[in-house]
């Protein structure tokens, strides 16, 4: 059985790590380099770095900060935000990232996923999804719509159809973020994760809603996720990475030492 992964997330705005509810990003959560160093020391399995306003502002990602983080950590680093071109992907990998997370650019230029996967390997290309539940009639299965530009713009794309296309084009992993749950600390959208897991056979990183360790346990088991991404509960030290892993071990979940 493959070990489940615990992945802290750095949401960076104006050089600081920030947190909010449903993409509000209105609360300072510390220095991203210092946080990255702590998570590396605590034994996080990977680290995700998102420049959360780069796409909406139409600018490149803050490569200097990415380099500072990559120089301080020895765990796999995924970087996203402001990816627009194949050269952006190349520059981020060259700057120290192990994987590149592509969201808005994949919607606007889907061939970017094909080109990047063919050049660098699917294991380096992460399809990032920001999904919002659509209103549904009673008795109907839930559905979700894809949003881009940091959750600011609806696309009309059905989330389940889109994840299938991303994987078909070469994405080797998906980060699946629920806009409804983001920052609420009320738990992941288990139905979203289950629905996506039934459609694709690549690792799914669940994102959005972690408020306690039971939420992480639920999404890794019932939600069928390969990894749990969390932010606030680690940034503000409600829990540490070792405490989270011990909790999961005690409940029968295989995690890395």
User: How would you write the strand order of the largest sheet?
Assistant: 1-4-5-6-7-10-11-12
| Binned strand content | 15-25%
**N- to C-terminal separation?**
15 Å
SSE order, as H and E? EEEHEHHEHEHHEEEHEHEHEHH
Count, helices: 11
- What Rg, in angstroms, do the CA atoms define? 17 Å
Which structural class should the secondary elements be placed in?
alpha/beta
The largest sheet, given as strand count, sense and whether it forms a barrel, is:
8 strands, parallel, barrel
- What form results from the Cα inertia axes? globular
Query: How much helix is in the residues?
Result: 25-40%
Low-confidence stretches: none
**Mean pLDDT across residues:** 91
Number of strand segments: 12
Can you give me a brief rundown of this structure?
With 257 residues, the protein is of the alpha/beta class. Helices cover 35% and strands 24% of the residues.
Secondary structure layout plus pairing:
Blueprint: E1 5-13, E2 16-19, E3 27-28, H1 32-42, E4 47-51, H2 54-57, H3 63-72, E5 77-80, H4 86-94, E6 99-102, H5 104-108, H6 111-120, E7 125-133, E8 144-148, E9 153-158, H7 159-169, E10 173-178, H8 190-197, E11 204-207, H9 213-221, E12 227-230, H10 232-235, H11 241-250
Parallel strand pairs: 1-4, 1-12, 4-5, 5-6, 6-7, 7-10, 10-11, 11-12
Antiparallel strand pairs: 1-2, 2-3, 7-8, 8-9
Q: What key phrases describe this protein's structure?
A:
single chain, 257 residues, alpha/beta, 8-stranded parallel barrel, 11 helices, 12 strands
């Amino acid at each position: 059985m493959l070990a489940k992964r615990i992945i802290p997330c750095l949401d960076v705005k104006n050089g600081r790590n920030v947190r909010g509810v449903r993409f509000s990003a209105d609360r300072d959560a510390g220095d991203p380099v210092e946080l990255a160093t702590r998570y590396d020391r605590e034994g996080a399995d990977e680290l995700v770095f998102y420049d959360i306003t780069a796409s909406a502002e139409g600018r490149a990602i803050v490569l200097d900060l990415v380099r500072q983080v990559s120089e301080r950590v020895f765990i796999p680093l995924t970087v996203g935000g402001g990816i627009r071109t194949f050269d952006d992907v190349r520059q981020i990998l060259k700057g120290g990232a192990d994987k590149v997370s592509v969201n808005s650019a994949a919607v606007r230029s889907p061939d970017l996923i094909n080109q990047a996967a063919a050049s660098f390997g699917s294991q380096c290309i992460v399809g990032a999804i920001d999904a919002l539940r659509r209103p549904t009639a009673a008795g109907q299965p839930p559905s979700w719509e894809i949003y881009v530009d940091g959750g600011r713009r609806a696309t009309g794309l059905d989330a389940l159809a889109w994840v299938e296309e991303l994987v078909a084009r070469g994405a080797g992993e998906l980060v699946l973020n629920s806009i409804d749950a983001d920052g609420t600390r009320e738990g992941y959208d288990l139905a979203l994760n289950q629905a996506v897991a039934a459609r694709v056979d690549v690792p799914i990183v669940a994102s959005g809603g972690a408020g306690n360790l039971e939420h992480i346990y639920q999404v890794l088991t019932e939600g069928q996720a390969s990894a749990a991404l969390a932010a606030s509960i680690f940034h503000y030290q409600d829990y540490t990475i070792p405490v989270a892993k011990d909790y999961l071990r005690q409940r029968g979940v295989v995690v890395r030492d």
